[in-house]
């Protein structure tokens, strides 16, 4: 029996299948924020955060340096560690870096789109978006879209054939994924649907071999993503 398009192109179905951050404490922090166990405004001691994230003190301290540098926590010597919402600069800088990488990567991708890729990602978008659009929060569908979103953008960067750039890009996507998870608003599903529609428009330009049009779509998509991240905190 012939394989279907979706069987040929493996698209991750959940965030569990996405690449992990090399810093285990940071990875677990992102996971805890993503599933709502850690909320902005929460204050914990180092010992409590060790227990919460199930990491020892040494790797936690390495994670705290990174988290504080990103503006995701505030460390006070006597009161403890407070989880805070990312600053606008954190969101903007991550997206700006992604734009630089992906606009160049798109050139390589459009020149050699993997067989079956467009059909597979279109089918998955329509399926997941239809579930999200039912109006009831479905975390499985939301995670499926987040995984699909990262797969799409990672596919562009993979076309460069540079593992170091891909690794950096994965971390940028993880940072942005965490910001989205911290939003926790009723607008979140609508934001995902808007992003999905922007993807579908981008796919049309890629299918037509229109590099300039695809690049414009990608830039508009990023501009809209920054707006959504800022306006719906």
TrEMBL record:
A Pfam family the protein falls into? FCD
Top-level division of the source organism's lineage: Bacteria
Membrane-crossing ranges are none
Where is the HTH gntR-type domain positioned along the sequence? 19-86
| Record key words, sorted | DNA-binding, Transcription, Transcription regulation
Q: Which SMART domains match?
A: FCD, HTH_GNTR
Known InterPro entries for this protein?
GntR_C (IPR011711), TF_FadR/GntR_C (IPR008920), Tscrpt_reg_HTH_GntR (IPR000524), WH-like_DNA-bd_sf (IPR036388), WH_DNA-bd_sf (IPR036390)
What is the name of this protein? GntR family transcriptional regulator
